[in-house]
Amino acid sequence: xxxxxxxxxxxxxxxxxxxxxxxxxxxxxxxxxxxxxxxxxxxxxxxxxxxxxxxxxxxxxxxxxxxxxxxxxxxxxxxxxxxxxxxxxxxxxxxxxxxxxxxxxxxxxxxxxxxxxxxxxxxxxxxxxxxxxxxxxxxxxxxxxxxxxxxxxxxxxxxxxxxxxxxxxxxxxxxxxxxxxxxxxxxxxxxxxxxxxxxxxxxxxxxxxxxxxxxxxxx
Length: 219
Description:
By secondary structure, the chain is α/β, with parallel strands linked by helices. It has one domain (2-218): TIM Barrel, CATH 3.20.20. Helix content is 35%, strand content 21%. Strand 7, helix 7 and strand 8 form a beta-alpha-beta unit.
């Protein structure tokens, strides 16, 4: 069962920071999940929210700051995170803004080629399924994770359509039968965000393929 750190090691260190990703690596995880938005100068930045308000001392929308300004708030670029990870685990990139899609695909292609990374080390996920469809059309080699928090049947149908790698559902949607059904269709299940001991025990009993957690060392 794959242990995947949510926004790095969010339960221990501030989310989506280089320090959080470093902590995740120290925990020897299988994968790291992170979120991306674009800066005003079209750099791919690693941050969950549309604004910098919640996670930094700044105020305003990510898209209104340059990458240099965002780095001063402690927000890393995706390239900085990949350099840190250095192929020690796979990276699940969650796209929050559709405008980021093409640039993420280009970065994965260029970074993989330049740094001898296997494209298999990347999964791209999103709740915006139009983004996932675009990725499948731009580069069919990139693994896709279909995120859903409320609909399983539609997620399975869509995953078939775009030949996705995984379905990434909210863990409270899952039952032993649903897990078996998804896996029978050929998809991995990377479920989120499973934090309490009770929930981790329950989800592990379902035999999912991967668990995304703020406390991934507890899996």
